[in-house]
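User: For documentation purposes, I need each entry recorded in a consistent format: the amino acid sequence on its own, followed directly by the corresponding structure tokens. There are two entries in this batch. Please keep commentary to a minimum and don't merge the entries.

Assistant: Recorded as requested. Entry 1:
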Amino acid sequence: MAAAELTNERMEKIIRDYFEACNSGDVGRIAAYFTPEAVHYFPSGMYQGPFRGAETIARKWSEAVAGLGSYWTVDQVICDAPTRRAVIEWTHFKRKQGIILRGDEWYVFNPDGRIEEIRAYYASAQDPNLQTVELGSFDYVGRGYPTEAP
């Protein structure tokens, strides 16, 4: 990707173009939106943990398109260029199964506009068997998130 100023408008375009790439199922096209060491986090227990690396993320989404008929839409976008962060609301259609999933994702970009991190949050019922419902393998303590109620 060409280096250009990272504006709110550019961030939104990158996200929308990334979703188009995901819907194409083209591994190379998808991977181009990520830094090589990018991480895509999911709720604990999903996909045997986070997807690590641009090629892994791209391959997993390509497999979802081929196997599940996956198609994603970007429904809402909020960007904050000074912090290189964005949040979106999305819909995931698993067309071969007749399933619709909804959720949010937080994005962190590097200065040239490639995605360093995605944190996915799904709109679903809380598992009553879990004491803590959070992203698997995400460093909440290291990033300064609270771990106990006041």
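Entry 2:
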Amino acid sequence: MRFRFVWIGKTRDARLRALVDEYLQRLGRFTRFEVTELREGTGRAGIEDESKRIIGALHSDGLTVLLDVEGREWSSPQLAAEVEKWQNGGVKEIAFVIGGPSGVNPQVAARADLRWSLSRLTLTHEMARVLLVEQLYRAYTIIHGLPYQK
């Protein structure tokens, strides 16, 4: 199984970028992954341009998980169970999508197989990236029974 992380823009904050890189490196011990950073849209058409690029980056045979404040919430053990279910179910690729600051258009939301909320709190998109990769790493430590801070 492979993860694809699709998000708008680069992580500009060097400290957050270092955290994303650290957790991606750790995650790489358990699964393959690819990060697709898409160019930010500008002006009124920004969200539409970004959404077209997101849809263009998704593979038709993969599972798409949109990070969305209105999505389902999982505890870390529940996320680990989902990841294990995807692995055992033969899912080849899971794309985790984080839209731009203005969100995504309805076509991207409709394209998503699942909508996942990291928190009901408002997070910066850069912070959401850190939480996403950290929680996926944590899920694998739970699956493999490895010690990890609680």
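Summary note for entry 2:
Helices lie at 14-27, 46-57, 76-88, 106-111, 125-143.
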